[in-house]
Design a protein that fits this description.
Blueprint lengths: L1 E4 L5 H10 L3 E5 L9 H9 L6 E7 L3 H11 L3 E5 L4 H7 L5 E7 L15 E5 L23 E3 L8 H8 L3 E4 L4 E3 L2 E2 L1 H12 L1
Parallel strand pairs: 1-2, 1-8, 2-3, 3-4, 4-5, 5-6, 6-7, 7-8
Antiparallel strand pairs: 9-10
Helix pairs in contact: 1-6
Bound molecules: ligand LARABZUK.
The ligand O=C(O)c1ccccc1NCC(=O)[C@H](O)[C@H](O)COP(=O)(O)O binds next to strand 2, strand 3 and strand 8.
GO molecular function, one term: phosphoribosylanthranilate isomerase activity
Protein name: N-(5'-phosphoribosyl)anthranilate isomerase
Family: Belongs to the TrpF family.
Length: 198
């Protein structure tokens, strides 16, 4: 079970994520209570060992600008929220970072990993980063394939049942490991990783 902890903002957040065994850590570079600037992201990325994937999270900015942010911060992956068309993925193909296509389920949503040329698919609640749960049984009618992450309102308390029900390749969390909006709770980060893998 691949586990991504998102919205990290401090060096201690990063250290705890790595110690807890997370496979990926996310840095939000877009409007959010969790937003950090590219300089801080670059510093935090440099503190992450190579075996942990670093991910820059953006929403609704031009693909070229998103790519520049990924290069500036030195992340291993760029996570695109906000209905980016396939052309945006084509534009970013061949760069030295992976691409994560973040979507919410809707009519006609393509849930095949790689359909837009991405390396990873992330299926989230309609409001990314809100901590809102959504009806994951909707996946029963539109089952994803390949390397995909389940996100949206997960927590140490809910992740095991969600994994059993949805059978994702991995999971992603932000709000459920916070003590208040934008502030990571290090105990809950550890609990989440353990519960996801239990
Ligand atoms: O975290 C944010 O505030 C955010 C803002 C804008 C776009 C994406 C954002 N987060 C993306 C994530 O990867 C979250 O971890 C994912 O949506 C799950 O969030 P949560 O429901 O809070 O666990």
């Amino acid at each position: 079970m691949f586990v991504k902890l998102c919205g990290l903002r401090t060096e201690s957040d990063v250290a705890v994520a790595v110690e807890s065994g997370a496979d990926a850590v996310g840095f939000v570079l877009t409007a959010s209570p969790r937003r950090i600037d590219a300089d801080l992201a670059r510093t935090l990325v440099a503190a992450v060992p190579d075996h942990v994937l670093t991910v820059a999270v953006v929403r609704g900015i031009p693909a070229e600008e998103a790519g520049e942010l990924a290069l500036k911060t030195g992340v291993g992956a760029l996570q695109l929220h906000g209905d980016y068309p396939k052309e945006a993925f084509d534009e970013l193909a061949g760069q030295p970072f992976q691409l994560v296509r973040a979507i919410a389920l809707g009519p006609g949503t393509d849930v095949r990993t790689g359909a837009f040329g991405e390396d990873l698919l992330l299926i989230d609640s309609p409001v990314a980063g809100s901590g809102e749960q959504w009806d994951i049984t909707r996946l029963d009618e539109n089952r994803p394939t390949g390397r995909w992450l389940l996100a949206g309102g997960l927590s140490p308390e809910t992740v095991a049942n969600a994994v059993t029900a949805a059978r994702p390749w991995g999971v992603d969390v932000s709000s459920g490991i916070e003590s208040s909006r934008g502030v990571k709770d290090h105990g809950r980060m550890r609990e989440f990783v353990a519960a996801a893998r239990a």
